Amino acid sequence: MKAKDFKCPFTWNDRRPLFFDRVLLVPEYYDRHAEEWSFPGWEDPLFFGRKDAPVYIEYCSGNGAWVIEKARRHPEINWIAVEKRFDRVRKIWAKAKNFGLNNLIVVDGEAQPFTKYYLPEASVDGVYVNFPDPWPKERHAKHRLLQEPFITDLARILKKGASAVFVTDDEQYCNQIISVMLDNGAWDSVIPKPFFSTEWKDYGTSFFDELWRMKGRHIRYMQYIKTIGAEGFEPPTHCSQSSCASQTALCSD
Question: How large is the C-alpha radius of gyration of the chain?
Fold first, then answer.
């Protein structure tokens, strides 16, 4: 199976939420997600066809090297790869097909709407966000994924006691992630101050992991545990982009 074998099943004007050949298509520039999508349950054949296996999500999956290896090594876990670029989605799909991975599905779409509209409360056992785009220019920082709205959505979909892991090579982004997580109120850091580590044995690798290591950059790992149930969680109202980026020395070497 080759990546080019996966064809988008609709035109731009006909775009809609659709599960097609182990890929969930989450359309862009679309305002009817909540109206046209109904979560069928993990046990539905469209998803994994089994109810009791834990569900883990990797966001920013790229070409799929990390999540494919995890799905191969851990068939007892249901895996979801979320990637917004269609060319990369096709590569993940082809690898999953060629390895016969029935415990992996691919989401073609943006992380934010998928998390907000497509996943029910307390339905996920863990998430990994590997090398999200740091948008390094200050005027572009507003586009970063790991800000308050997305973190609040993660707190909603994760079960109490579930883990969220973030990996980046960008020091400034690391600072912002830590500040947002500490301000949110739903999380405890597994890693003590300065709340990140540059080592994680057997974490796994990916294209960007290898690229940035080759360029001599330090990889920063952060891990948080969701500590409260949904019934006790109130999203913070005081955390702006500027205030959440105020701790500037946390991730310095």
Answer: 18
CATH number, domain containing residue 211: 3.40.50.150
Residue 133 appears among annotated catalytic residues: yes
pTM of the full predicted structure? 0.89
Q: Which residue has the tokens 């690391």?
A: 174
- Where is 18: in which H helix or E strand? strand 18-20
Domain count, the chain: 1
DSSP tag of 90? H
Alpha-carbon distance 251 to 42, whole Å?
Answer: 37
Range of the domain at 115: 110-244
- pLDDT tens by residue, 90-130: 999 999 999 999 999 999 999 999 999 999 999 999 999 99
Q: What would the pLDDT profile of 126-142 be if each residue is shown by its tens digit? A: 999 999 998 666 666 67
Candidates 133, 153, 169, 183; catalytic one: 133
CB 187 within 8 A of CB 155: yes
